[in-house]
UniProtKB/TrEMBL annotation:
One GO MF term: methyltransferase activity
Keywords noted in UniProt: Methyltransferase, Transferase
UniProt keyword Methyltransferase, yes or no: yes
GO biological process, one term: methylation
Pfam families recorded: Methyltransf_23 (PF13489)
Protein name from the UniProt record: Methyltransferase domain-containing protein
């Protein structure tokens, strides 16, 4: 028996497929919480030889779309003075865009080189505890979701975790585009019951809003997060009014750091 890593329940094989064009993958789904996962993906080192897969053509438009959405939602939920860490921040484009929007955002990614947000790597000693962690296109890459979220929270001192995720509906469709076996990086897939169970395991509340999700130890009214997401466009100008852009201030800060180091 291969137990589910989220709830410990029994899992069953849904199908076998070919990953990266040559590795045999066994997909399993938990009968209790519908966590769908690849059992023992042994090719991850090869899959991450290129941190952001070539077939991820959505990388630029995703960050441009998410920047105003996250700005509006995070200020709405946590106020204008929050400190945020983007886990799995990739090339740092989203962190740079969110700092430009006025949010105090930092980058963290053990697998990728920071290109756009250099100088704003997360350092808990310098920044103190974070308000929330964001994880965009990350949760489908992790082998142990409970341990991953727990680590994110412990490393940053945050009590909230905001992430993107396409959900499946509990039916195991081997042709679902999100499985993306060509790149070999997507190994964990969630349904709504999976995320409710994940939250329960971590002692957190789960707030869904389409493909955006919030796990939090804070008390929010039911539906508050979904409303913040639904009305993010009309609330965006109001939220931005409380946030001066940081690009010039960031520039000056980095110049000072270079001068001090010289
Ligand atoms: Zn389960």
């Amino acid at each position: 028996m291969v137990p589910c890593k989220i709830c410990g329940g029994e899992s069953r094989i849904t199908h076998r497929g070919t990953v990266l064009g040559r590795h045999q993958a066994t997909y399993r789904m938990c009968v209790e919480c519908s966590y769908w996962f690849i059992d023992q993906p042994h090719w991850l080192e090869e899959a991450y030889s290129e941190a952001i897969a070539a077939i991820d053509t959505g990388v630029a438009q995703r960050n441009l779309r998410l920047s105003p959405l996250l700005t509006s939602v995070l200020v709405g939920m946590f106020g204008p003075d929050g400190v945020y860490v983007d886990y799995g921040g990739g090339y740092g484009l989203l962190v740079r865009l969110l700092r430009d929007a006025g949010l105090d955002f930092y980058w963290r990614d053990p697998h990728c080189q920071n290109l756009f947000a250099r100088g704003f790597e997360w350092d808990g000693d310098r920044q103190g505890a974070a308000t929330a962690v964001t994880a965009v296109e990350v949760m489908e890459h992790v082998t142990d979701p409970v341990a991953f979220v727990d680590t994110c929270l412990r490393e940053t001192g945050a009590d909230s975790f905001v992430f993107t995720q396409y959900l499946h509906d509990g039916t195991a469709d081997p042709a679902w585009w999100y499985l993306a076996p060509e790149a070999g990086q997507h190994i964990s897939f969630y349904a709504a019951p999976t995320l409710r169970t994940l939250a329960h395991r971590l002692g957190m509340a789960y707030h869904p809003a389409g493909t955006l999700h919030l796990l939090t130890k804070q008390k929010f009214r039911k539906g508050a997060f979904a409303r913040a997401v639904k009305f993010h466009r009309c609330l965006y100008p109001l939220r931005r009014r409380r946030l001066p852009p940081r690009w010039m201030q960031d520039h000056e800060q980095l110049v000072r750091r270079i001068r001090c180091a010289a």
